[in-house]
Design a protein that fits this description.
Layout lengths: L1 E5 L3 H13 L3 E5 L2 H7 L7 E4 L8 H10 L8 E5 L4 H9 L4 E4 L4 H19 L1 E4 L3 E4 L4 E4 L2 E3 L3 H12 L5 E2 H9 L8 H13 L7 E4 L3 E4 L2
Parallel strand pairs: 1-2, 1-3, 3-4, 4-5
Antiparallel strand pairs: 6-7, 7-8, 8-9, 10-12, 11-12
Length: about 220
Amino acid sequence: MLIAIIEDEKDILELVSLHLKKTNFNVKGFLTGKEFLDFIKKEKPDLVILDLMLPDIDGIEICKFLKSDNKFSDIPIIILTAKGEEIDRVVGLEIGADDYVTKPFSIKELVARVKAVLRRYQVKSKILDIGGIIKVDLDKYEVYVKDEKINLTTTEFNILKILLSKKGWVFSREKILEELWQGEKAVIERTVDVHIKRLREKLKEGGRFIVNVRGVGYKIEE
């Protein structure tokens, strides 16, 4: 998953980036609001950590912009700032921020809050993420690879859904067949291999997350 950090204090930016990367997040850091706004024209982050006191654009204005634009309104925002007065907290939360952390802060607590906010969003939207590259919307039956919508057949989508139900868990061909075709004898295990081959091709670079465990079956491995 991609975390964008907008923070004009370079030391803090590097510290937060380092610890999020250690937790296996992809991170992009920005020292100014303009750099960030230019970036999101090309790539959409999964969460934003936003300082309010920036040298060029007020962080509150960035937060308002993100929450008022349909393309970005679903991005969770954690405000990170030295502004600790109650009014600043209230304003930040009222305009759509999901959490508020004041400086000085515990880096472990910040990482824990990032994880908690992302969990809440995934449960609420039923959108699953694979390696920061693939997004699967279980409600809409839609799959995106780097924000490009991929057209899957119902069977391909359901195989992906099965594998995602337990990331890292190996599903045997027999188990996948049982889930999809309720034990129809006419359907052979080779059918699973064919569907997964097509699924990998459609997922492009994301296809590498579907791993074949020789002699057993398939799993999602990030």
